[in-house]
Structures are given as structure tokens and as C-alpha cells.
Design a protein that fits this description.
Elements (H helix, E strand, L loop, with lengths): L1 H26 L12 E6 L50 E6 H12 L11 E4 L2 E7 L9 H14 L19 E6 L2 E13 L6 H21 L2 E9 L3 E4 L1 H6 L8 H14 L7 E8 L6 H15 L6 E6 L7 H9 L6 E6 L5 H9 L4
Parallel strand pairs: 6-7, 6-9, 9-10, 10-11
Antiparallel strand pairs: 1-2, 3-6, 4-5, 7-8
Helix pairs in contact: 2-4, 4-9, 6-7
Length: about 375
């Protein structure tokens, strides 16, 4: 049994090595988005077969045997493979799915993109109940009974009553002798963070642009969940008006109309002031757009809100501009020109899916 477990562990290490090798492909793909659970993600791994014995007759020949000379092309087996025709009888090639812990996946991401661990800014820590089962009481579930203390109490009672006989030692605990483990609560600090995913859903943002945003959000959340014990995510969409939505609506909403970015920044600021005070939360807003805004005046308002209200309260504000056939890309230029020395502001342009890893590194690479 020990050898089986050892071989299985070695095989899983081989699988994880394959995952690390193919991780950059997953960074630009939506393949993992629908496979994420609460604590693990199911990752498909190809071209790895579980070793097994196969019994049969070896009389038909082996490698290097059969008709033909060295160098002759192999003829395709018409009974296998793809093509038109009826149902076949040959086995197919199946993909192995491996459940990988999200913490381990985040570690792979950090190694691949060389991301530093995040240091929570200031003393933004929430207090959570914690502790260990180091206390003792006389009542409680039998499953938490402390055997040694129960026996010791029964022994002390037996001796005190004069019932102890060294020649026939017998100690029978009673209900009064029971000693039960209980938790001693010790409040402990728990680092907490909130992520604002803000997306432009105006008519110029197409399906591909939203898919790029979805992939980036998946990896950003995966990394931040490793860094913080408690992470909340707020989804905000905006065209000319901003609103808070759930995750499914955020990634599948189709809208049209103009773009007023200041509406989203005002809503983000309102949520920070009302629910996520900077003294208690590490705050990370991520804004995704194609760079179009309805007027230069509204862009000026966005810059003022960012500089005077949002940036002093957050760990970092990230703006990711997704290239669109209908977007001008002007908003990033305006931000870079107006706030060139703001360390808490990170802007990045993504041309296509191949640019997603660089965008993630730009957003998370400062360790803020």
C-alpha cells in the first residue's frame, strides 16, 4: 500500500509539472473559468495516461516488426481516427482532469509571472474568532472527552473514598469524573480585502473584449485570495449609468448606449465610504474599458475623483484598456498624462488574449 501511495504521489507531481509547463497557455484561455469550485479548480491535462498492465498475446509482433522497410511511411488505420462513417468500436483518447487547490494554482501563477507577495497597507486587519481546544469543562460531547484527565479525576475520587485496592486496581469513571475539551477563543487578526471589478458595457465593448476581462478577473481573484484570508468581490457595470450586479450578470450582460465613466467611479467611491472603510479593508479597484468616454469634461471629473478621493483610500487602482474596433483608446492616454507620478495608479493596454499575462504582471507586480 505504501508503494502504491508513493507511486501515485509521484504521478501527481508529474501532472503538476505538466500544468506548470502549460500555465501560460491557460493564462490566455477561458478553459478554466467554468471549472472553478470553492477551493479547487479542475484542470484538463492531455497526453498523460495512467500506467496500467495489459495482458494479451505477444505473437503478433512488436516494435520494428512487420512488413515494409526502414523509412517507409506508415499507412493510416482506417478503423481508427476521425472521419465520416458509422459508429466505431475503437476506444477514444480521453483527457485527464486534475483537481488543483486554488492556493497551489496561485503559487504557480506567482512563479510563472514572478509576482511578489502583497504586504497589506497599514493596519487594515479585521478581528476574527479563533483559538484551539485547550480548555477543559465538565460537560460536552463524548467525542471531545479528554481520557487522561477523566481517568485522573476518577482515580483521585476512588482514592479519596478509600476504594482503591492495589491488589485489584480498578478505576471506573462516573459522569462527575468526565472532563471534556473545549475551545478557548482567542481573537486573531484576519487580513481582509475587497476587489472592485468595474467594466464598461457600452455598445463598443464586444464579446471578445468581455472574455478578456473575464480571464483577467479570474486570475486576479485567484492571486488575491491566496494573499488575504477574507476577500470580497464587488461587480460594477456602467454605460452612461453605473450599477452593482452579481458575477453572472457582470460577465454576460449585453448592453448598448453611451459611456460615462465618472458614474462608475462615483459608485465605487460611495461603496468605499459606506461599506469598506480604508481603516479596515485593503481595497483594489480594477476598471476595464475600451477607452471611450462621452466627453472630455467627464474625463476631467474622473481624474479629479481618482486623484482626490479614490487613490488616497485604496492600495492600488488598476485600469486595463481592451482594444476594440470601435474604441478610441483615449482614456488611458488622458490618465497617463494627468497622473504620471501616482504610484497607486497602474494602467495597461491589452491588444488581444496574448497580452493578458503581461497585464496581470503589471497589475500585481508591485506587491501593493
Amino acid at each position: 500500500m505504501f508503494r502504491i501511495e508513493r507511486d501515485r504521489a509521484r504521478f501527481r507531481e508529474i501532472v503538476r509539472g505538466r500544468l506548470r509547463r502549460d500555465l501560460r497557455r491557460f493564462l490566455s484561455s477561458s478553459e478554466l473559468l467554468g471549472r472553478r469550485g470553492e477551493e479547487t479548480v479542475s484542470i484538463p491535462v492531455t497526453q498523460i495516461e495512467t500506467p496500467r498492465f495489459k495482458y494479451g498475446d505477444n505473437s503478433e509482433g512488436g516494435v520494428g516488426q512487420g512488413p515494409g522497410e526502414e523509412g517507409d511511411p506508415l499507412e493510416a488505420d482506417e478503423s481508427q481516427g476521425e472521419g465520416a462513417g458509422g459508429a466505431g468500436e475503437q476506444e477514444g483518447h480521453h483527457i485527464l482532469e486534475v483537481d488543483v487547490d486554488l492556493v497551489e494554482l496561485a503559487e504557480m501563477l506567482g512563479e510563472e509571472l514572478e509576482l511578489p507577495n502583497i504586504e497589506p497597507r497599514g493596519d487594515r486587519m479585521l478581528t476574527a474568532n479563533g483559538g484551539s481546544y485547550s480548555g477543559i469543562r465538565t460537560v460536552g460531547p463524548k467525542s471531545l472527552r479528554h481520557f487522561k484527565r477523566t481517568y485522573r479525576q476518577a482515580l483521585k475520587r476512588t482514592i479519596a473514598l478509600g476504594e482503591w485496592d492495589p491488589k485489584k486496581p480498578s478505576v471506573i469513571p462516573t459522569a462527575e469524573d468526565e472532563r471534556i475539551r473545549c475551545m478557548k477563543e482567542q481573537p486573531k487578526p484576519e487580513s481582509s480585502a475587497v476587489v472592485f471589478h468595474i467594466m464598461d458595457v457600452s455598445g463598443s465593448m464586444g464579446r471578445e473584449q468581455k472574455e478578456i476581462v473575464r480571464i483577467k478577473a479570474f486570475w486576479i481573484d485567484t492571486w488575491l485570495r491566496k494573499q488575504y484570508d477574507n476577500l470580497e468581490v464587488v461587480y460594477v457595470v456602467h454605460d452612461a449609468v453605473a450599477k452593482i450586479v452579481d458575477q453572472d450578470t457582470f460577465f454576460h450582460l449585453r448592453e448598448s448606449g453611451g459611456t460615462k465613466i465618472s458614474s462608475a467611479y462615483d459608485m465605487c467611491l460611495s461603496e468605499i465610504l459606506e461599506r469598506y472603510r480604508p481603516e479596515e479593508w485593503n481595497i483594489y479597484p480594477f476598471h476595464y474599458s475600451d477607452g471611450d468616454n462621452w466627453s472630455a469634461r467627464d474625463t476631467e471629473r474622473c481624474i479629479a475623483v481618482l486623484r482626490d478621493e479614490i487613490l488616497p483610500r485604496v492600495n492600488q487602482f488598476c485600469y486595463g484598456q481592451v482594444k476594440s474596433a470601435y474604441g478610441s483608446g483615449q482614456f488611458k492616454k488622458d490618465l497617463d498624462a494627468a497622473l504620471p507620478d501616482e504610484e497607486g495608479l497602474v494602467t495597461c493596454a491589452v491588444e488581444d488574449r496574448d497580452g493578458i499575462p503581461d497585464a496581470i504582471r503589471a497589475f500585481l507586480g508591485k506587491g501593493r
